[in-house]
Amino acid sequence: MEKKFVYDEDTALVDTASGKVRGYFYDDVYIFKGIPYAKAKRFHAPEPVEPWGDVFQATNYGYVCPLIDLPKPDGELMVPHRFWVMNEECQNLNIWTPGLDGEKRPVMVWLHGGGFSFGSAIEQIAYEGGNMCKLGQVVVVSVNHRLNVLGYCDLSPFGEEYINSGNAGTDDIVAALKWLHDNIGRFGGDPENVIVFGQSGGGAKVTTLLQTPAADGLYAKGINMSGVIVDPDVIDGQGNGEKLGLALMKELKVDDVKALETVPYEALAAAYDKVTPALKKAGEYVGGTPYINAFYKGEPIKNGFRKETEHVPLMVGSVFGEFASFSPTPYNRSKLTKEDGIAIVEQEIGKEEAKELIPLFKKVYPERNPVDIMTLDFRFRLPEIDYIRARSRCSGGVWSYLFNLDMNFDGGRTPWHCADIPYFFHNTQFVPYTQEKGVTERVEKLIFDSVMAFAKTGNPNNPEVPEWTACTPDKEFTLVIGKETKVRENFDHELVPVLEKCMEPVYARNREKQMVNVQH
Asked: What is the pLDDT of residues 85-125, one digit of tens each?
């Protein structure tokens, strides 16, 4: 079927509060790229952009935030990436909309992954918003914002002007939501039905917004995909940034914190890389994550959810393998018998541990070879269980899911971190590893229709899924998504703690081996 393309003076022209923007029309979607939503001096809060006089040409993706280390293309078959021009002037967003009219469509605001230090709004090809926009009849938005030392570096001990520099990246996201609240109606969206959704660090950003008073009222719902992370490198920053600031000034040979605002970014990043290992080893604040202060309450498992956001419904889930499934295995999984799998598990974790763990695994995943124990995630799933239990006490409701569909990769591999993203966006056509005849389209429709139902009603139930009940503090009803999809109650709560006990020593040994290899 021929896809219509129009780029002229009138077809995709919108008058925003900042000035007119001109995009283009393609395949039944109006597309606007790189629209500035704010501006900011380094380490300072974002401010409204200066209105522009001429029409802003919104046909190019905007700058993405500079990274501390240059990205190295790797693993592109598993997570296809796109790398883009980096610059500190990265406060911009992209919009896909079905119509520039008076309709009030749900607004899906994508927060990208990469923790709080990496990534961008266009980093993965699966982030493209056109299919979700067209097939779901929703407005899709993706947001760039400050990261790493630019977005999360507390310098508040050095003056009031840096009072929330430890959360500048989150302040950028709030500024984007404010811009959308004021302008998205002109793009056919409903400012009162904004859904913030994200994966990994993007999911963590959804939680961060729940804990950020300045964001209250700017979104209505949230979807947290593999974003409940309790990890020493991704916990909330505490203490203060005085020692970090002084170390940066010493390394850069400047005696005034103001100089940190103007040194070239490459020098700042190199200094940050050099001084943080020693500070981290000493237990000092090193930035790079949200900072607990008056503007941000802190991670909710430890600090509780703010009552002001208890009405917000959430979808929360993760993937069978997460990071464990990235690593190639020394065996051909597709050719193993279940007896072979048991032998491998016994060899890796010990016979006594295997005797305890394998029966629990068989009970939870009877269709799987026991060898899949070696890639089953617990680092995301364990804190997620606690998160869902705590959140289910809120009135908005929380729906749990687990992505359990093996990927057509390397003879078949358990799903890895990011593997579910193409299904949420209805973008499996762009990603080779998703292709499995008779399976891909069915699972994609199930996931996509659930996301769209949630966006429109606050409840993900739809004809494609079995009855999916919201969780309670005692009962987690998880939609386990695979070739066969079922809703299961507390299905892995007994398994996952035992998995952690048995597998953590294996991971510790592997880390030790890696360190030895690096040293030699």
From this structure: 999 999 999 999 999 998 999 999 999 999 999 999 999 99
CA angle 66, 195, 165 (to 5 degrees): 35
Question: pLDDT-based confidence at 69, cuts 50/70/90?
Answer: confident
The DSSP letter of residue 238 is -
Pairing of β 56-57 and β 19-22: parallel
Token pair, residue 286, equals 């090193």
- Calculate the CA 237 to chain-centre distance: 19
Q: What's the token pair of residue 389?
A: 């239990």
User: CB atoms < 10 A from the CB of 174, how many?
Assistant: 23
**Phi and psi at residue 4, to the nearest 5°:** -80, 135
Full strand arrangement of the beta sheet holding 19-22: 13-16, 19-22, 56-57
Burial of 135 (0-12, 13-18, 19+ CB in 10 A): middle
Burial 430-468 (b: 16+ CB within 10 A, else e): ebebbebeeebeebbebbbbbbbbbbbebebbbebbeeb
Residue 489 tokens, joined: 């109650």
pLDDT of 345 > 70? The answer is yes
Q: Which own/partner pairs from 302-310 qualify as long-range (CB within 8 Å, at least 24 positions apart)? A: 303/211, 304/390, 305/210, 305/211, 305/390, 305/391, 305/394, 306/210, 306/211, 306/213, 308/213, 308/216, 309/210, 309/211, 309/216, 309/394, 310/394, 310/395, 310/396
Rg (CA), the chain: 23
Give residue 387's pLDDT band: very low, low, confident or very high (50, 70, 90): very high
Number of Cβ atoms within 10 Å of the Cβ of 149: 27
Cα end-to-end distance, the chain, whole Å: 58
Residue (of 375, 349, 339, 400) closest to 508 by Cα position: 349
Whether 263 shows a pLDDT value over 80: the answer reads yes
pLDDT > 70: what percent of the chain?
96
Helix (H, G, I), strand (E, B) or coil at 3: coil
* DSSP conformational letter for 209: H
> Which backbone phi and psi does 43 adopt, to 5 degrees?
70, 5
DSSP code of 434?
Answer: G
H helices present in 365-474, as ranges: 381-391, 421-425, 440-457
Please say whether the beta carbons of 220 and 457 come within 8 A: no
CA distances (Å), 298 to each of 187, 234, 421, in order? 34, 12, 27
- pTM of the entire structure? 0.96
Q: Which of 351, 401, 345 is nearest to 369 (CA)?
A: 345
Report CA-CA distances (Å) from 51 to 37, 48, 89, 499: 11, 9, 16, 56
State the pairing for strand pair 92-97/139-143.
antiparallel
